[in-house]
Amino acid sequence: MQIQGSTALVTGANRGLGAAFVEELLARGAVKVYAAARTPEPSDDPRVAPLALDVTDAAQVEAAAARAGDVTLVINNAGSHSGARIADGDFAAIQADLDTNFFGPIAVTRAFAPILAAHGGGAVVTVHSVLSWISAGDGYSASKAAAWSATNALRSALAPAGTTVTGVHVGYIDTDMAASIDAPKIAPREVAAQALDGVEAGADEVLADEVTRGVKAGLAGDPMAFPVG
Ligand SMILES: NC(=O)c1ccc[n+]([C@@H]2O[C@H](COP(=O)([O-])OP(=O)(O)OC[C@H]3O[C@@H](n4cnc5c(N)ncnc54)[C@H](OP(=O)(O)O)[C@@H]3O)[C@@H](O)[C@H]2O)c1
């Protein structure tokens, strides 16, 4: 599908990669962007429609789909990173990461799938991570691995309706989430641009940086080849 003329919804749109998605969509000619956020912010741009959406709140997901019935492109961007360790971290925090990063995109995609189908198919983008394929030892990594599986399931399930599903995998991005990390980071706008190129190409996956491409290529190797943090 083409971004030009599309109507998009971006979760977690108020900052970081979500805000970059909104900017890139508008730059490419999207006619309307629902900027969905837990605390929606007003915009001076008439093409931007703020929308209240906590992706872990089933009633808000349902209300968002009821309000935004013109959406042709869904971008599951919202993410949480508690850092809670699988082996001994706070269990509720691990569950919260799964709620946002795994159940959230599933709930949003299920709610919007009939809307996308009614508009001829459209597309879904879900933001994953290089940690879909290596573990940093935390619930966040597990949530991204699980979300990768769900994205693969949804790609098959939505294909008959003509909906493409693109998974975006990436290492460190220069946002709040990685603020404490001292390592090379890709710019959020660059990730958004690659993701939207992927949508326009009908790509199943976008691997946005060299680290991610290397990890995916090494998947057939020893699972302990990468140090767990
Ligand atoms: N930064 C990285 O290094 C990196 C690397 C790979 C993948 N990613 C992924 O990239 C995506 C965007 O993250 P980011 O880097 O932009 O991080 P960020 O700066 O921490 O932003 C996270 C965004 O998700 C929103 N969010 C969190 N929980 C939510 C919920 N329950 N419902 C709705 N929105 C929620 C936040 O909203 P509030 O403002 O309300 O908190 C915020 O807008 C995430 O899926 C993340 O896992 C990030």
Describe this entry's structure for a reader:
With 229 residues, the chain is an alpha/beta fold. The chain has one domain (7-217): 3-Layer(aba) Sandwich (Rossmann fold). It is 40% helix and 14% strand. The chain has a 7-stranded parallel β-sheet, with helices on both faces. Strand 5 (123-127), helix 4 and strand 6 form a beta-alpha-beta unit. Helix 1 packs across helix 5 (188-201), helix 2 runs parallel beside helix 3 (91-118) and helix 3 runs parallel beside helix 4 (139-158). The longest helix is centred in the middle third of the chain and has 28 residues, at 91-118. The chain is globular, with a radius of gyration of 17 Å. The N and C termini lie far apart (39 Å). The mean pLDDT is 97. NADP nicotinamide-adenine-dinucleotide phosphate is lined by residues 11-12, 14-18, 37-39, 53-56, 77-80, 100, 127, 129, 170, 172-173, 175-178.
What descriptive keywords fit this protein?
binds NADP nicotinamide-adenine-dinucleotide phosphate; alpha/beta; 14% strand; 6 helices; Rossmann fold; 40% helix; globular; 7-stranded parallel β-sheet; 229 residues; 7 strands
- In the sheet with the most strands, the strands line up as 3-2-1-4-5-6-7
The CATH topology assignment is Rossmann fold
**Separation of termini?**
39 Å
CATH superfamily: NAD(P)-binding Rossmann-like Domain
Helical stretch tally: 6
In helices, the fraction of residues equals 40-55%
The number of distinct β-strands equals: 7
Class of secondary structure makeup: alpha/beta
Q: Assign the CATH architecture.
A: 3-Layer(aba) Sandwich
Per DSSP, what share of the residues sits in E-state strands of 2 or more residues?
A: 5-15%
What is the CA-atom radius of gyration, in angstroms? 17 Å
